Amino acid sequence: MTDRPLKQVHLAAHFPGVNNTTVWSDPASGSHIEFDSFRHLAQTAERGKFDFFFLAEGLRLRETKGRIHDLDVVGRPESITVLNALAAVTERIGLAATVNATFNEPYELARRFASLDHLSGGRAAWNVVTSSDAFTGENFRRGGYLDRADRYTRAAESVQLAREFWDAGEEPVRHRGPQFEVEGRLSLPRPPQGHPVVIQAGDSAEGREFAAATADVVFSRHSDFAAGRAFHADVKGRLAGYGRKPDELKIMPAATFVLGDTDADAAERAAEVRRAQVSPQTAIAFLEQVWGVDLADHDPDGPLPVVDPDPDSALVQGRVRIPDPVGTAERWRALAAEKGLSSRELVIEVTGRQSFIGSPATVAERIDHFVQQDAADGFILVPHLTPGGLDEFVDRVVPLLQERGVFRADYTGPTLRDHLGLPLPERR
Questions:
Q1: Please, are residues 412 and 43 in contact by the beta-carbon 8 Å criterion?
Q2: Residue 228 and residue 234: Cα distance in Å, rounded?
Q3: What dihedral angle (degrees, nearest 10) is formed by the CA atoms of 73, 78, 81, 84?
Q4: Which residues are annotated as a binding site?
Q5: Looking at the structure, do residues 237 and 140 belong to the same domain, yes or no?
Q6: CA of 34: how far to CAs of 30, 38, 352, 391, 426, in Å?
Q7: pLDDT, greater one: 354 or 93
Q8: Percent residues over pLDDT 90 in the chain
Q9: Domain containing 310: what range?
Q10: Which residues are annotated as a binding site for FMN?
Q11: For the chain, is the Cβ count within 10 Å smaller at the N or the C terminus?
């Protein structure tokens, strides 16, 4: 045990964007395009005093065998457009947009996020993502020009140059680097936050180093306790090399949840949610993502495919291919044999788990435990229903975190940096 003060839990709300998180068959499932859905979820998160509202984004609809899998979310309005509108109907919650550094110029990124920061009174955040995917690049004049090894080089210089524009305001910027040569002016004053908050989600060695050097928040995929502690220690341990302190970077894994009046009730509801998330069609689409072969005639209620995966397949476009598909298939076959699982049951087992399942008291205790034990600094919550899926969490779990003294009763400052406990950057 240590005598350090209790860490404060950070919470954000993710509007589901891709994959099979959303339970479309539920009567409460609403539109992912109508503005009222975004408004409801953002205002619910603000009522719960969350740090920020988060939008993912894809630049091209993902395909399997040239077709769109319509049980995934496949399209919606552009993120910064949505957030600019939300700035008018919210007051304090941060507004975070995912925007690709590969297919956007640093000047336009700096200008768009500075505009959002001014319009919202200092609540803007940029989730920096990269792409070396030629399939996505076909929507742009560059195509798939960027080698995978260069994607973080471009992203790092994009952030650096955006920050130069933010620091300069209306003063001239002269930048010479390996990716960009720019002379120009931002045409806006310096943003209220100095620099809008930078979020990063890469998990490779390059991604972790990029986060340590550049990011304010890491959107981590490590919601398992042991994996979360290892990731937290690894990334925080890299900060000193860049002259940064551990509390200057917040690590917030994505997390799902299912609540019930009792733990048993929640477990029963979670099983229903998992089965609804992984329809027979979704199970086949996921297997094709691993196997790389056409499985249209495969029985989802039968055993796993007997054929070996094709590691060089281009059957699936726009999705990140699961590493080591042959080894993954072998591990899945062993798991299916051990537990007697069909193909669909196997996919449910490996993809459909909720991070937090239980009564409100159980979920509040587990979230607090993760944060106090340095497995995370907080969580970006992804509800399985839009737009009302966060309501129950805000009404039943947030008050218990507040009673524990680990979550704010109200906002203490106007900006997202205030919510996250991040200092205003010095003007360089």
A1: no
A2: 10
A3: 50
A4: 98, 152, 204
A5: yes
A6: 9, 7, 27, 18, 39
A7: 93
A8: 74
A9: 279-351
A10: 98, 152, 204
A11: N
